Amino acid sequence: MIRTSQIGSALVAALGLPKQTSAFTLHARAGQIVTVECEYAPESDLFATELARYGLVALDSPRKPAAHPADAMGYDAWEAQRKELAHREFMHRTNRLP
């Protein structure tokens, strides 16, 4: 068994991945393109620069999600309305007559 600590840094260097790489997945299959997925922390200066563009604002209270139409009219009525609308759109899309 080979541990990541034994070959991890050598693989990161060989693949040309960032030094801050925390994990990567290498997918290689005969006859296909080799893909590498890489997770890494950005450089500290770049990260600070990007965060400086945004500001955190405290909310007075959590926002409630918008009410769903099914809550107001009942689920069965909402489902029937939704099916009718979908059927109408389908018939309009597929109708060959002018």
Folded structure, characterized:
The chain folds into two domains: 4-45, no CATH class; 68-98, no CATH class. Helices cover 47% and strands 13% of the residues. It has helices at residues 4-15, 44-52, 69-73, 75-94; strands spanning 21-27, 35-40. It has a two-stranded antiparallel ribbon with strand order 1-2. The longest helix is centred in the C-terminal third of the chain and has 20 residues, at 75-94. The mean pLDDT is 83.
**Mass-distribution shape:** extended
Alpha-carbon Rg, integer: 27 Å
Query: Beta-sheet strand percentage?
Result: 5-15%
- Helix/strand/pairing category: alpha+beta
Please give the number of β-strands.
2
Helices, by number, come to 4
State the end-to-end distance.
71 Å
Strand order of the largest sheet: 1-2
Helix coverage percent: 40-55%
Poorly predicted residue ranges: none
